[in-house]
């Protein structure tokens, strides 16, 4: 009981990183950039390819709503679950050609029988605002990123806007997925204030994980395991970013045991309301940047 | 003097990884694969684009000799130092089209005024046997590599053929270059026996480097600083891979102080004769694999 009481008091010491509020600020900035383009007759537009029901419907609709708020036009094509690859391909190719479409999203998950990697590979890298094409991931490794993938970029933006220093810090990432862990490691190794970190990537094959995670100044958890990270795994005073979002019978929870860990840290993101809102904001940012780049307005729009 | 004497005795305990001998074995295997293709009338061929004198000449010639030994044809086009970008571009495009050319190398360094990144971006990814195009680097991050870049692939091959376990080990890489550190980190994070490592990347902005490098089961050094790593930076019994090659008044030396470090470790690569020979071998391997893939013989050639 004593520990619990102590924990409750100390939660207030651990600063909660206000993902929602920061995302709102970012969205305001994006709306201003979009407005400058619209004044010049350029209407930033995102095309979303969707197939099948379930989570992909929900994700797509939340992106549509966010676009509407900042002045980005959206066209969603909702294909039936038994869609042929050729039809998806034709839509990608049509939007690749159309000057009025600046960003293209292939909303995951697609039906199992669709070769999503092949479809993604067809998206014009200049319109790949999710930064999922090999060409754009490769530009990132080569140190000349065109776009940054939304979730990793959102994490970095959260840290920077919370005045948390990244350069020279020891960052430990738990999780080596293609959409979070690996691109995030590559971003944090870039030169500059969003990078210059000493980066360690851990995963299911990692031994002595606690020893490693306790060495982190900034611990970023994308393990996909509800409440996986306990206070023993975190250094006192560290910054913890929770990328997980797990549906449990206690509601949505992250990969970090928030109540257990929060008293130990100097800052922590909540779930929900932490990384999530930033992911959508970064997608909007990429779309407006794409519209500006494709129309030669990158400098004028302040992007 | 005592330390020196001890060092000399103990050097024998640290196994020296025989890069040259392993590279010879790999080259024999490549020659056998090339021979199987040649029997079917497929002559693996590498095109090398070269401009300017100095190191690029030396690198290109050593690749030509290595190709000749394993049965790969080479065509080197040696452009004058004041070559126009358009002429280099035309050559890349010609080789992209020619079915008889399976691999294309843009030999670095090119003259300063040539935009090498732009030129590299023009190479057909299927013929990019150096794995330097964004598309191929991105395939690596996405976990579906087409080729692996030669130096990082050579390092991993050295470890695997020396029966050094990678999976689950803590690997620390010193150096975050686009040709070694970053692609190597991405390879070591792939699934399987060449990956599954817990990977940390350190660089000039890293603080407490000694503390981090001492945590490594496998320490890979690509810092570009002669004899930079001393025994204090290495855990007793670790494996040390030295990617450095520095011309000094004492001759060629690596980034590791070999005499100082060798007594402490369970295995170490020498310089020269360690990673260097493997780099060329991996390039040959990629070229033969490219020839097999482009002619539909990937399975038959045992590649």
UniProtKB/TrEMBL annotation, chains A, B:
Ion transport keyword on record: no
Pathway of action: One-carbon metabolism; tetrahydrofolate interconversion
Top-level taxonomic group: Bacteria
EC number: 1.5.1.5, 3.5.4.9
Catalytic activity of the protein: (6R)-5,10-methenyltetrahydrofolate + H2O = (6R)-10-formyltetrahydrofolate + H(+); (6R)-5,10-methylene-5,6,7,8-tetrahydrofolate + NADP(+) = (6R)-5,10-methenyltetrahydrofolate + NADPH
Any one GO molecular function term: methenyltetrahydrofolate cyclohydrolase activity
Single biological process term from Gene Ontology: purine nucleotide biosynthetic process
UniProt similarity note: Belongs to the tetrahydrofolate dehydrogenase/cyclohydrolase family.
Function description: Catalyzes the oxidation of 5,10-methylenetetrahydrofolate to 5,10-methenyltetrahydrofolate and then the hydrolysis of 5,10-methenyltetrahydrofolate to 10-formyltetrahydrofolate.
Protein name: Bifunctional protein FolD
Organism expressing this protein natively: candidate division WOR-3 bacterium JGI_Cruoil_03_51_56
